[in-house]
Amino acid sequence: MQVNLRSFKQKVNHHAKSMKKFLGKIEKNPPKGLDKIAAQIDAEVWQEIDCLSCANCCKTMSPTFTAKDIKRIADHFDMTPKEFKEKWLYFEEEDGDWMNTKQPCQFLNKANNMCSIYLVRPADCAGFPHLTKKKMVDYIHVHQQNISYCPATYKMVEKMQERL
């Protein structure tokens, strides 16, 4: 299903605070079978959300680039990791992460919302939005952040609220 970013942003403005609070309650007192419920909802979400109609993550966020990511992507461009970092990344001192220098992502094709380095993209991008990456309670803080950026995360939390 197509994502209407304008409509999504309006929903976020109205519901993000209560959704984050809901996730906080789940984190403190996880219901039995939470990971199983999350896996079921994950499958449903991807029947309803088309990432290529959105790409809001690529437009508004930066992945963290691991040393392996940097080497792999630099090799793809026949560059050294140092050259790659100098051209496209900056080092975020507080968290110790390599991040994109600009947004939207330099590798996003704005015409079709596709990643120009999809096959070698950062692991952070490949796993986004991390709906079932780890145990649900271990990733609540990430979901709380991603509600505001990712319609799939928003939809997941919306469905959880309906079920729990």
Strand order of the largest sheet: 1-2
The first-to-last residue Cα distance is 25 Å
Radius of gyration based on Cα positions: 17 Å
- Tell me what portion of residues adopts beta-strand conformation: 5-15%
Number of strands: 4
What composes the largest sheet?
2 strands, antiparallel
Assembly annotation: single chain
Unreliable residue stretches:
none
So how many helices? 8
How many structural domains are formed by the residues?
A: 2
How would you state the average pLDDT, rounded?
95
Q: Can you give the helix content as a percent range?
A: 40-55%
**Element pattern in H and E:** HHHHHEEEEHHH
Overall 3D form = globular
Provide the structure class.
mainly alpha
Structure in words:
This protein is mainly alpha-helical. It is 53% helix and 7% strand. The chain folds into two domains: 5-58 and 129-163, no CATH class; 60-127, no CATH class. It has helices spanning 5-28, 34-48, 56-60, 67-76, 81-88, 123-127, 140-146, 151-163, and strands spanning 89-92, 97-100, 108-109, 114-115. A two-stranded antiparallel ribbon has the order 1-2. The longest helix has 24 residues, at 5-28. It is globular, with a radius of gyration of 17 Å. The model has no long low-confidence stretch (mean pLDDT 95).
Q: Layout of helices and strands, plus pairs?
A:
Blueprint: H1 5-28, H2 34-48, H3 56-60, H4 67-76, H5 81-88, E1 89-92, E2 97-100, E3 108-109, E4 114-115, H6 123-127, H7 140-146, H8 151-163
Antiparallel strand pairs: 1-2, 3-4
Helix pairs in contact: 1-7, 1-8, 2-8, 4-5
